[in-house]
Fold Hemerythrin-like domain-containing protein.
Amino acid sequence: MSTTRNSAGFSPECEVSIPEIDEQHATFFDMIERIGTVADDLYRPLDDDAVDEALDIMAEIREHAQAHFGTEEGYMQEVDYPGLDDHRTAHERFLDDIARLEGELLNGSAVPPIKVRTFLTESCRGHILSMDKPFGQFYNKNK
Ligand SMILES: [Fe+2]
């Protein structure tokens, strides 16, 4: 049975079976969902106030991501995970993507929030399923 709290976007298939990491992933999806609350129509570019709100949320997502990646990489070091370097590269790429989205929002290049939310949700899900889950299996076998 799942012990992870319910969270939008966090489905049972996303569980990596390391409770601290699952909790942090659920928080990610909650933060990403908040992008959808900055405007009534997610398909239209944001006005200036909504851009400010979206940027605040993006800054929170970036800070959470940095802390979370540190946690995850710590678990990897604990068990000498052979995939650590590749995994670290994927984490850096995700942070680059966030910085790029922040830049697009900041210079008003008319990004609709649905695009930001969908991109982040899919990046997180894809990363969790393809990289974090295999690590979770390795960790639980080798801890
Ligand atoms: Fe990861």
Observations:
- The chain has four helices and no strands.
- Residues 72, 87, 91, 127, 131-132 surround fe (ii) ion (CB under 6 Å).
- The chain has a mean pLDDT of 91.
- The chain has one domain: 19-142.
